[in-house]
Amino acid sequence: MVFTMNRRRFRDLSEQEVLALAISSEEDDARIYRGYAERLRQDFPDSAKLFDEMAAEEDNHRQRLIELHRSRFGEVIPLIRREHVAGYYARRPIWLVQNLGLDRIRAEAAAMEQEAENFYLHAAQRTSDAATRKLLGDLARAEAGHRVSAGRAAETHLDTESRETEDARAHRQFVLTWVQPGLAGLMDGSVSTLAPIFATAFATQDTWTTFLVGLAASVGAGISMGFTEAASDDGELSGRGSPVKRGFASGIMTTLGGLGHAMPYLIPDFWTATITAIIVVFIELWAIVWIQNRFMDTPFFRATFQVVLGGALVFAAGVLIGGG
Asked: What topology does CATH give the domain 2-158?
């Protein structure tokens, strides 16, 4: 609250301060675009060129704004930044975006341009001072021009073939880093915990004990799968991406796969809980089939045979062991 109260309102800024704010904003955006370019340069060189050119455009805008400030107000530019002004559009820290996918970075860049243009247009409509209105209108047109330049740069650096190639590479990386270890975890958590959970259920017919066994099996399997995935491959040679990301994907999905049919045993009635758990197992197995078919290109009937048959055998083993 103290920080918010200490921020200036935009309508209270002088024209010199508005110009200084625009200069610092253009400088920040150029730095962000260069960060995107470095993040993408190795895997997506064409998109990296695009962001390099967008950064150069921001530098050009900043130079024009500095020249305007010099001609109107002199050499000394006041220090005023986005965080000093209440209600001014903010930029997300680059570390919140740079580890995301190519499409997310492209979308973030498009949003940056749109936010800047919209802000300047809105601010121009709110002021009654002619000179300030002209200044803000010029800034809005500069951002619109930047969008046109970015579009031209995209046509230059990202033709249809380049875009399709980069999109395919991004999809492959997403599958290798997140889908593949997550799917392995989901399969392990869903299938491997069937036997202990249902064996306990039919042996004890105690829902709370069954839940505790399922919880322990799921969490234990999740921790084991997560560490195993992270330690098995650092991703440098295989190109499978960060071992930490893969470990989290595998561990979390393993835990969720087991908890799916353990949670129904929070229901006190044994048969209600068991029937609910069987329905959940059915949904889990078909979800695995869908993921395999959708992301791993596994033929539907083969995936169905492997997953459903394997799950049914493990389920039957648990029931037989517990019922015996």
From this structure: Ferritin (1.20.1260)
